[in-house]
Amino acid sequence: MLSPQVESLITVQMAHPFQNRLLRALSAADLALVLPHLESVRLQYRQALETAQEQIEFVYFPETALGSVVAGKEAGSSIDVGLFGRDGMSGTSLVQGDSRSAFDCITAIEGYAMRISADNLQDAMRQSASLKSLMAHYARALGIQTTYTAWANAEMKLEQRLARWILMVDDRIDDHRFRVTHEFIAIILGVRRAGVTVALKRLEEQRLIKIERREICVLDRDGLINLTMGSYGPAEVEYQRLIQNWSDGATMEEVQRPRAVEPV
Questions:
Q1: By CB distance 3.0 to 4.6 Å, which of 37, 69, 72, 84 could disulfide with 88?
Q2: CATH annotation of 156-227
Q3: In this predicted model, what pLDDT tens digit does every residue of 228-240 receive, in sequence order?
Q4: What's the topology of domain 4-136?
């Protein structure tokens, strides 16, 4: 039996649903466990969401913001190993039984997110097997994405990696354009800023993107996909299988059956 307060919160939320796909996938019972502890926060550009080897204090479910999971390198530089937005969440270590983050996590594109304390989310997962299972499925999907990112970082040219990153950002926004600096892209991809400038220029010359007022505008998704040489697509299919089908109300048996790829 839900309390009148929680029922009221759920009624309000149904009228103004979350943009985050994981929160939208929750049953009424699971939503009742987390909703009283969620708060909307504005995430600033390059804001630290998690710090490597430190306790996770909060878990963020982006609504319009994008987060980047970043691994440090010996020379003090860093490289992106995972990207998430309204498709996912930070704090996947908690789902796997670890209260510490293995990597840094920062805001890649500023915007809004729903935030819950790590303690409250862990408590909710202890009370609900279905909630924990959904979070675990997302952790699996992010792990698959990370594997393909590692492959792309090791085998692909900068232009191809940049095309893949642009596609992944485009999947998580609404209007096919986003503001980002060359410097930040260089940090995320672990390369020099001058190389990013050259690669962006090449993509623009091929009319795949357009650079306008410090914004990247996606013009030709198919052309960008072709440029990625298969590094974009497989992880997105797995997300559909593991998460999107769940969001659509599929049973666990149905989740094992792949569907056609759709934007996350």
A1: 84
A2: 1.10.10.10
A3: 999 999 999 999 9
A4: Jelly Rolls (2.60.120)
